[in-house]
Amino acid sequence: MLNRRHLLAGLSLSLVLVSGPPAGALERKPFDAKAFAAAQVAGKPILVEVSAVWCPICKVQKPILSNLATKAKFKEITLFEIDFDTQKDLLRTFKVQKQSTLIAFKGTQEVARSTGDTNATSIEALLDKSL
Questions:
Q1: For residue 70, what is the domain's CATH number?
Q2: For residue 61, how many other CB atoms are within 10 A of its CB?
Q3: Ranges assigned E (strand) in 1-131
Q4: Between helices 120-129 and 56-69, what is the axis angle to 10°?
Q5: Model's pTM, two decimal places?
C-alpha cells in the first residue's frame, strides 16, 4: 500500500534524478575519440579514467572522483571513461596496462598519470595538474 512516506521518497528521488549532477561538477562521459580530440584542441582540462567493474581499486576511486567533482575548481574538467575489459584498442592508444589508471591532460599535453592510487589528496593533485 502506498502511504505518504513512500510518496515523498519517490518524489525526492525523482527530483534528484531530474536535476542531474550538482552545479560545478566535472563532466563524465564514455570515451569518444571526436569529443576527446575536440576537448584537447580547445585546451580543456581532461581526465581519462581506465576502470573495470570488478576492480576493487576502481570502486574506491569512483567516490573520490565524485567528491572532487563537486569542487568548483574542477568544474571545467571533462572525464572520459575507458572500460578496461572492452576497449583494448584504447588501452594500446594510451599505453595503459592496468585498470585503475588515471591520466590527466592539459589540452593535448599529458601532464600526470597514476595507477592504483586511492589517496584523495594525491588524486586531487593529479587533477590540479590538468588545470
A1: 3.40.30.10
A2: 24
A3: 27-30, 45-51, 78-83, 101-106, 109-115
A4: 60
A5: 0.80
How many domains does the chain fold into? 1
Q: How many distinct helices (H) and strands (E) make up the chain? A: 5, 5
Mean pLDDT for all residues in the chain: 86
Distance CA 52, CA 98 (A): 10
Q: Is residue 11 assigned to a domain?
A: no
Residue with cell 534528484: 16
The one-letter amino acid at 112: A
In 41-86, DSSP assigns E strands to 45-51, 78-83
What does the longest C-alpha to C-alpha distance in the chain come to?
58
Query: Any bridge partners for residue 110, and if so which?
Result: 105
Is residue 41 pLDDT above 80, yes or no? yes
Amino acid, single-letter form, for residue 83: D
